[in-house]
From TrEMBL:
InterPro entries per record: Methyltransf_11, SAM-dependent_MTases_sf, Thiol_S-MT
Matching Gene3D superfamilies: Vaccinia Virus protein VP39
Name this polypeptide is given: Methyltransferase type 11 domain-containing protein
Matches recorded under PANTHER family: METHYLTRANSFERASE LIKE 7A, METHYLTRANSFERASE LIKE 7B
All copies of domain Methyltransferase type, residue ranges: 57-150
Domain of life: Bacteria
Single Gene Ontology MF annotation: S-adenosylmethionine-dependent methyltransferase activity
Organism: Microbacterium trichothecenolyticum
Pfam families listed in its UniProt record: Methyltransf_11
Length: 223
């Protein structure tokens, strides 16, 4: 039988296979690195994720690093498009006694009703979404009035610093490895201009060998 596969079909299949491979790599990477990442971010997570409600929406929960901050018996509505993350995420939810409502959706279109969430959380996610402004608008749409968006993100370092130079040099291989993650996004400005009623935000730096990852923000925005 003649091969009727087009060049576009082959490219699409190749890209799909590469995306799947990177998704599996990232699931393994974040599962293995969870204790190390948690050690660096714990103090900030404890502050930002304090007193979460009984039901929380998380954008990009990955392998479940933030489930430890939810009370046992609560529910996580998990918006996670990477199927390779789903198994570890379910295991983590069971381990922490948290109910899991798993949605294989993109953060730009969660499919959740307007004004249906008291709290949305994210950590290390806005760096890799297609359009942070669209995602932040989606978060505002699903939050009830007075609801909170609680976040921790790594961001672009100030211009002229060694860290910013490293972010610029490593931008392409970093993005390829970590599913489109950009280490040069000004996510603080994105959150500040997203239209939330109020915002508290903290800039901080962690010290790791992963230099592009070392500049961070954490905060709480209120709808």
């Amino acid at each position: 039988m003649a091969d009727t596969t087009t060049a576009d079909d082959r490219t699409t299949a190749f890209e799909f296979s590469q995306h799947t491979a990177r998704g599996a790599f990232n699931a393994t990477f974040f599962r293995v690195m969870d204790p190390y990442i948690e050690h660096n971010l714990r103090r900030h997570k404890q502050r930002v994720f304090a007193d979460l409600p009984a039901e929380v929406v998380e954008i990009g929960p990955g392998v479940g690093a933030n489930l430890r901050y939810l009370a046992a018996g609560s529910t996580l509505v998990a918006v996670e498009p990477n199927r390779s993350m789903h198994g570890p995420l379910r295991d983590a939810a069971q381990r922490y006694g948290v109910g899991l409502d798993l949605r294989e959706r993109m953060a730009e279109a969660t499919g959740l009703p307007d004004r249906s969430a008291d709290s949305v959380i994210s950590s290390l996610v806005l760096c890799s979404v297609q359009d942070p402004a669209v995602v932040l608008a989606e978060i505002r749409r699903i939050l009830r009035p007075g609801g909170t968006f609680r976040f921790l993100e790594h961001v672009a370092a100030p211009e002229g610093t060694t860290t910013r130079a490293a972010q610029r040099i490593l931008r392409r291989p970093w993005a390829w490895t970590f599913e489109g993650c950009s280490c040069e996004r000004d996510l603080e400005q994105a959150v500040r201009t997203a239209g939330f009623e109020s915002l508290t935000i903290e800039r901080y730096r962690i010290r790791t060998p992963f230099l592009p990852f070392n500049t961070h923000i954490a905060g709480v925005a209120r709808a």
